[in-house]
User: Which sequence fits this backbone?
């Protein structure tokens, strides 16, 4: 199944008396990079988990194209790529084995070529046989990103993809995200690094206390606009 | 619905108030003496406990396979009542055992399997209490597994015990005892239904309160 | 991909990791041996084990070390949240459950391969007299214990206090398995061997396995979505 849009309609999530998400509505189109900004505990990870079908909203719905997660099952999950904060890599396996395992789990055709390309993009071709436990945070981050995108998902959910990356790797990731846009992938990413994504993303939205506010494009840098919005105390 | 509950509440209160009179007037058992009277509350509390375990199992099923919110409340309430009625049984059982066998605890098949079942539902409550957010669903799996486990527990404990047979002491019911016994059983089941309803109602109120809190925040 | 292919993928990954670190194997084995020793002090009097001690000690060692192995096997999936990665992968979730179950079972099989002869030697227990029945009890008992344990350990990955909650939930529910294992083994070890009794326990274990594997396959999906 394929889909070219992602629609949130009044998505709320409560944990007992705490409201993590409050009637979030958002629509993303294919080829769009949307940044999810906001302070810690604003509900960004909750929203990503719900989008990845790992968490069910308390009310409201998420539609992938015109389908709901509940009725789509594994097929839909196979079209989503998730880079989590904890990277989802087995430290006891080598870089190549990690990619191999997940590639097989996703039933990818032409796996060895894909792995070659992924290792090259992660700049880990010469470290392919090394255990992930020996990798630095930046190397793990690069590998984890390639793992999440190995199956060319229609929807890429990236939680803090720039963490631990040096300048060269950051530039590479920016290029990678631009190619994702060209291939019509919907990208939803969270970050605190406003300078890095300024000019790259199509749209930014702010999550604050579980509510969603759009950051209008306009005067000034992204950081200025972000500051203005948070200062008002929405 | 509310009226029905009120009728049940009053009827059950009257029954429980009248039960001691019936028990006093029931025939005096020769070998066990006065302790035999425990029986009128002991067995009915087991009955309530097993009913509650079954209710919790069914509710857990609905928690896992449907999105009904009340199922979770019924399951939690039923599990708590398993523990409460089980506790009554587990306290009155040893009192009986002391008189009948001269020891406080006897590894009697019924007492042992009831203890195991009781432990399962204590575990259910522990998981809900200490498992953190989202543990309701996990507890439902325990409830479902616990209820499915009843026949296995019962069978295995029975066979285990009959390998070293003990003298059967549970007296067969004399005709004069039967009436008061079933009266008490009915009263306890009534009490169970009353408590379950109240407990579920309390949870419903609590959920309402939560939504009100959330609405105020909005 | 067929169900069995997925199962094998998950199991093979676990074997590969375990073969590399051997952490769960060594800790579980050592723990099982410690259990045997600790209980030996309670049940050996004047150099002679009390009646049925060997059967009891063997199954306690299996249950305790099994809990340890189950906890560790899922702690590994929690460390970098790889369980989440597997849950959003387009695989059937019951297959994931079976894959993890098979992995734990293989590990415990190796541990038992060492612990069972050890108990036989230390307590002069004729565990190999009726080897086939004994094997049947061990296999079905371990499967029953792990079938429930794998589901509970998997769901507790996202719970607080998971380390204490696993044994708290697991032991009451698997008491029938322990009783059947201990009594079945004891029936084979006692002076006048009671074969019908051992067979009766074996068949109860088979029923238990069928019942709880079915239930676990059925509940794994709803339990793993929050």
Assistant:
């Amino acid at each position: 199944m394929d889909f070219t849009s992602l629609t949130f309609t009044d998505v709320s999530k409560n944990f007992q008396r705490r409201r993590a998400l409050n009637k979030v509505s958002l629509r993303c189109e294919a080829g769009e990079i949307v940044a999810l900004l906001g302070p810690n505990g604003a509900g960004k990870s909750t929203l990503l988990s719900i989008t990845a079908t790992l968490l069910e909203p308390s009310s409201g719905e998420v539609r992938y194209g015109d389908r709901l997660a509940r009725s789509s099952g594994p097929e839909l999950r196979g079209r989503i790529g998730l880079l989590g904060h904890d990277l989802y890599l087995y430290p006891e396996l080598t870089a190549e084995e990690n990619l191999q395992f997940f590639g097989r789990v996703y039933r990818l055709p032409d796996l060895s070529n894909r792995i070659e390309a992924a290792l090259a993009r992660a700049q880990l071709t010469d470290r392919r046989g090394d255990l992930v436990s020996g990798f630095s945070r930046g190397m793990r981050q690069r590998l984890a990103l390639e793992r999440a995108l190995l199956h060319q998902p229609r929807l890429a959910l990236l939680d803090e993809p720039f963490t631990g990356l040096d300048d060269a790797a950051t530039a590479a990731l920016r290029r990678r995200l631009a190619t994702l846009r060209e291939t019509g992938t919907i990208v939803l990413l969270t970050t605190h690094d406003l300078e890095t994504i300024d000019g790259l993303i199509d749209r930014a939205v702010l999550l604050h206390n579980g509510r969603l506010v759009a950051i209008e494009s306009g005067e000034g840098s992204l950081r200025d606009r972000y500051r203005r919005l948070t200062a008002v105390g929405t | 619905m509310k009226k029905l509950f009120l009728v049940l509440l009053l009827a059950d209160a009257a029954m429980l108030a009248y039960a001691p009179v019936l028990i006093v007037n029931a025939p005096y058992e020769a070998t066990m003496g006065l302790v035999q009277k425990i029986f009128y509350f002991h067995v009915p509390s087991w009955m309530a406990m097993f009913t509650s375990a079954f209710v919790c199992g069914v509710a857990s099923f609905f928690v896992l396979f449907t999105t009904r919110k009340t199922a979770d409340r019924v399951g939690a309430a039923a599990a708590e009542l398993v523990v409460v009625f089980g506790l009554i049984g587990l306290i009155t059982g040893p009192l009986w055992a002391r008189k009948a066998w001269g020891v406080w605890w006897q590894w009697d098949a019924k007492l042992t399997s009831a203890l195991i079942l009781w432990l399962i539902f204590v575990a259910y409550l522990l998981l809900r209490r200490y498992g953190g957010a989202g543990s309701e669903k996990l507890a439902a799996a325990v409830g479902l597994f616990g209820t499915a486990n009843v026949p296995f527990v019962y069978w295995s404990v029975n066979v285990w015990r009959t390998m070293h047979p003990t003298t059967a002491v549970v007296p067969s019911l004399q005709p004069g005892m039967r009436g008061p016994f079933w009266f008490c059983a009915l009263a306890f089941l009534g009490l169970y239904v009353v408590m379950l309803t109240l407990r579920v109602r309390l949870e419903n109120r609590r959920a309402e309160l939560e939504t009100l809190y959330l609405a105020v925040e909005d | 991909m067929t169900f069995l292919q997925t199962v094998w993928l998950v199991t093979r990954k676990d074997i590969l990791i375990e073969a590399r670190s051997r952490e769960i194997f060594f800790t579980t084995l050592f723990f099982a041996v410690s259990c045997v020793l600790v209980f030996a002090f309670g049940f050996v009097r004047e150099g002679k084990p009390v009646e049925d001690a060997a059967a009891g000690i063997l199954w306690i060692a299996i249950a305790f070390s099994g809990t340890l192995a189950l906890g560790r096997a899922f702690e590994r999936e929690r460390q970098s949240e790889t369980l989440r990665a597997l849950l959003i992968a387009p695989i059937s979730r019951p297959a994931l459950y079976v894959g993890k179950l098979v992995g734990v079972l293989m590990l415990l099989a190796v541990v038992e391969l060492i612990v069972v002869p050890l108990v036989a030697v230390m307590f002069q227990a004729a565990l190999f007299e009726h080897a086939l029945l004994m094997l049947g009890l061990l296999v079905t008992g371990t499967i029953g214990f792990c079938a429930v344990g794998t589901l509970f350990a998997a769901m507790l990955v996202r719970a607080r206090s998971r380390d204490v909650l696993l044994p708290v939930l697991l032991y009451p529910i698997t008491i029938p398995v322990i009783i059947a294992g201990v009594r079945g083994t004891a029936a084979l070890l006692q002076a006048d061997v009671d074969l019908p009794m051992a067979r009766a326990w074996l068949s109860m274990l088979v029923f238990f396995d069928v019942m709880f594997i079915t239930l676990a396959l059925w509940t794994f999906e709803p339990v793993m979505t929050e």
Observations:
- The mean pLDDT of chain B is 86.
